[in-house]
Amino acid sequence: MPHTSSLSSPRNQPDVSESAVKLQRLVMGRSTDDSEKKISNRRIKDVEICVPISYGTISFWLGRKASESQSHKWTVYVRGATNEDLSVVIRRAVFQLHPSFNNPMRVVDSPPFEISECGWGEFEIAITLYFHSDVCDKQLDLFHHLKLYPEEESGPQSTKKPVVVESYNEIVFPDPLDTFFARVKDHPAVIVPRLPASFNLPAPVPIENAKEKKRGDTKDHPLSQWFVNFSEADELLKLATARQQVQAHIVKLRRQLSVIDGLPRPVKPASDD
Fold this sequence. Notes:
Blueprint: E1 24-27, H1 34-38, E2 48-61, E3 72-80, E4 90-96, E5 105-108, E6 113-119, E7 124-131, E8 140-145, E9 163-174, H2 178-184, H3 231-262
Parallel strand pairs: 1-9
Antiparallel strand pairs: 2-3, 2-9, 3-6, 4-5, 4-7, 7-8
């Protein structure tokens, strides 16, 4: 039996747009422990790997099936901004619900990274993302306000049109390990720069249990028709790609400079005084 949250009236909650867009670059810090120091020479300097994501909620009013304690069915999720499979980078998502729910900490270890519930109250959901070992050993904390009621209350709610609130973010991994880069460089969910042809990458190693995992993209998701199409995000993706190319050019120039610095300098001829 679904459990519900006993919160204050939704009308006392802060206003949130039905398609709120919060654009932000989330730069993940690098590790500083002993294991990190041992593999620091395997990092690709001055390069960033970018993973565009969308996260949010979609809530449906239950109509005649609604009760005082269960008025809405909702889903909270983290997806690729272009609905690609995020499990190439993310290994686990933890959703922290209101404590009035049974088992309020929900752990999802495979895509799609989402949970669905029923209730009547709005509250803040904490989302924690954990990454594969070659990506980052630090977690990423996100926060999302569950919204059940539309902004305009001039007419009755509809059971066919949900309330959708999504945020767009770019998770940025600076100076990635070459093993991580080699594994995701051709994956559609990830934006990577083009490295110089002379740059040697290790053979890509698949993540653990990759063959056992089911398809993780959300292109055919039952709620995909309600996902927000981030028109601004399209331009941001283009900018991110351009930024990656600039970084690749910087890497190439620095390599050329290091070669030049290692060459013997010409000796100036003696003057005839």
